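Folds vary. Our protein:
___
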Amino acid sequence: MTNDIFKVLKVRPFLFMMVSEFFSQFAFNMQNFVLIFIVYGITHSNTAVSGIVLSFTIPAVFLSLVSGVYVDRWDKKKVLFFTNLIRGLLLLFFLIPNLHVGFIYTLTFFIAVATQFFIPAESAFIPRLVPQRLILSANSIFSLGIYSTILIGYVVSGPSLLLLGKNATIIFLSSLFLLASLATLLIKPLTKGNAMELQPKNNGVSDLKLEIQEIFTFLSKAKKVMRALIAITLAQAIIFTFSVLAPGYMTSILNVQIESLSWILLAPAGLGMGFGALLLGTIGKRYEHKWLIKVGFIISGVIFILFPFASKVTSRAFIQTLNDFLPNFLDVTILHLVIVLAFIVGFANSLIFVTSNTAIQVSAGEGIRGRIYGLLNALVGAVSFLPVVLAGALADLLGVGTVITAIGILMLLVAVLFSVFD
């Protein structure tokens, strides 16, 4: 499998895809938290942060299924080019001075609309760039690229706002999207597009309904794909929910600046995701996908339950005894423990995402893969909507720690349900 990793990297279309992905995902992930920081800085409200997250998720509910149909019809390379270009241009509107929070939500919404076409096109494009025997390794590298850019983007987001200011940060993000758009021009797929992509249908309403119906007919027979869709949907919904709570967790529980979120939570989680993706790329074929997914949910659930109680753990006698033997600069604190927990939860999430994406890409053919990812985005948006709305309000009412603990319990219940209905 290690040799497969190097073989994938030698495939030029996939390599150019990774270059484009680096710029695009770096900009996308950094943009998410830059906007969260901006809104939280203006309002100091968890509920207001929910508005940003909802601005990203609402388009997924209403557009993703339809966008997946059109992505299957269109040239995916062109879709990637134009969606990156559009997002880069839309970001420039954030340079307008004294933007109202409502206008920030509106711009974020339109960026999310473009993203609904980008995501299914990017994920569905991979099998056309590498031989099928290398798809697991390609997904591992692709996921590693995403997690690496999550790491870099999240780490850079806070310091960038502090050091460069809002306007310079926005210009930087816009430039990254434009570079990603240009990089897609270098991609030359190994295989031709599917029949719909080469000879599109008349795009009528009846065709649209038929193509949507084909998704559910396919899923009724493909249990692996159905399981993968459910796993990614639930995991992503939980991540969205936690992103609403993260600023409050930093300020109310850890008592540190919100900009520290980058290196205390996000960077370790990104490293954990990257490590997990790399590990799966080398040994992932030895284990069943459904087993890896359940382990991922169990580990994540335990870690989320521990997050609010990190201060109590560091006050235990064994930690105090350990610190007596360590130099002062090595003393174990709550921040050290949270960093370790964040790394572990990142690793656990890679077990869910990498294996689930591989199951979808191997089992779903070229003619339906875009629609499957469109449905996935719609499910993520629909399932995330209520938790994201409630998370901010419940955190303001009951406390951030209580809501995070509830998230952990929910993840453990998901693992149990996967075992019961396996």
